[in-house]
Write a structure and sequence with these properties.
- With 95 residues, the protein is mostly helical.
- The chain has one domain.
- It has 3 helices and no strands.
- α1 runs antiparallel to α2.
- The longest helix has 32 residues.
- It is elongated, with a radius of gyration of 23 Å.
- The mean pLDDT is 86.
Length: 95
């Protein structure tokens, strides 16, 4: 009998769906910007806006994940272990 994992796992299908959705939406935004009846500098501005939106979304997702991991019990236990090891370490002690 297997013990349920404390860490939630994501399936490969969910990861594939997220990657495909990201690719399709980024491609769609690029095609939409390309075919808009605008000058090239306006298209460039919209393109830079989309790229900035994508990078800031990745940053926000990482921050949310990091905050969630730091609040979890296992994260706090690992942090306490690391702090204990660092407090016990004496760099001037001969091995």
């Amino acid at each position: 009998m297997s013990t349920p994992s404390a860490q939630p796992t994501t399936t490969s299908a969910y990861i594939a769906q997220a990657a495909i959705a990201f690719g399709v939406s980024l491609f769609g935004a690029g095609v939409g910007i390309f075919y808009l009846p605008l000058d090239s500098w306006q298209r460039g501005f919209l393109g830079m806006t989309v790229l900035f939106l994508v990078t800031s979304t990745f940053t926000l997702a990482k921050v949310v994940r990091d905050r969630h991991e730091s609040a979890s019990l296992t994260g706090r236990i690992d942090q306490a272990r690391m702090e204990k090891l660092m407090a016990e370490h004496d760099p001037f002690k001969n091995p």
